[in-house]
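1st attempt posting a full record on here, be nice pls
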Amino acid sequence: MSPACQDIFIVRCNCRPLSGKQGERGFGIAGPRLARVSDDGGRQTGYVGALALMRAAVFHEVGKPLVIERVSDPVPAPDQVILQVASAGICGSDLHMTENPQMPSGIILGHEFAGTIQALGAAVAGPWKVGDRVTALPLNACLTCEACAADLPALCPDNLFTGTTPLAPGAYAQFVAARGGMLQRLPAGVSFEEGAMVEPLAVGHHIVSMAQMAQDAAVLVLGGGPIGLAVTIFARHAGARHVVVSERSPERRELARTMGATGVIDPTMDDVAAAFVRHTAVARPHVVFECVGVPGMLDQAIQLVAIRGQVIVAGVILKQDAFLPIVALGKEVAIRYSQAYTKRDFEAVIGALARGEVKPGPIHTSTVSLDGLPSAFEALRSNPRECKVLIRPS
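the predicted structure (as tokens):
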């Protein structure tokens, strides 16, 4: 997931804004599931029928499990589509958000998803039709700011990440709304489960692309969670000779090996710098990817990286952190932060999946039904054996 998702908390609102300019965006919070009125090759152009309710997992209170409820079906704004969710992923940032006392009650989480188009808003452009298999960038940007003009909607200061606010309910539900401009088609060879993993894989692809890494580079990945594993996959895919992963969990260290790591380190038992040399015969990593997000990790990354090396920060810290600038200065370390992804990252990941160049199957450790989601969600807080848990809500 995008790091920013962990720091977005919007006051609950019962209004129903319209799609269009900034401040007028709507996300189909409530409305009727109505029989499709189709013309124009299967595009839905209107609704007829009675109010219907879908099932969703709803957050209400810190310290309490998600609750399966009946909620109003989403209705597409003019620039949106409605997807029937075939598969959705549980992200670590979802867990973090539900531990924050500022999290508003009533949110439906879930920003990693894939499914089939069930309805299209009147202004959705392109060749889309009901029944198409898709995933989507979970972004709802303003479309008018500097970031949007640069085709970087994830950096839009007014962007709403799907599944982080009542104004953009997420995919822990039978249906979810997505911007038509954010859709990505799933080729026939890419499963819905893989489609639901495109989002976290795109985060990893974007992180690696930020490094401008030499093909024979020796890199160190701090953290072997889903994002660290995605970085491992795409660092090897980009041609890194050595990809060493430092991770506390033995299960995740084993997963890192499966996903292409050339070496793994247990930081609770080994000196990371010395272990990196043993694995690579290289004095220091050319690139350090920080994928943990706890205070002190940036300082460690700077200490570990080579002279004129790069530190790419993907871990999210919601408090003050500190490092000794003279160490970075003395080595002329380049520090970059990676936030989310672009459409190009999604396209690259889907293409690599379709061609069989990356195989993320081992990251997917279990699947649960919507009814099983609340208990599985709580178990993830203390179960390092799991990596990517997928939900089959429909």
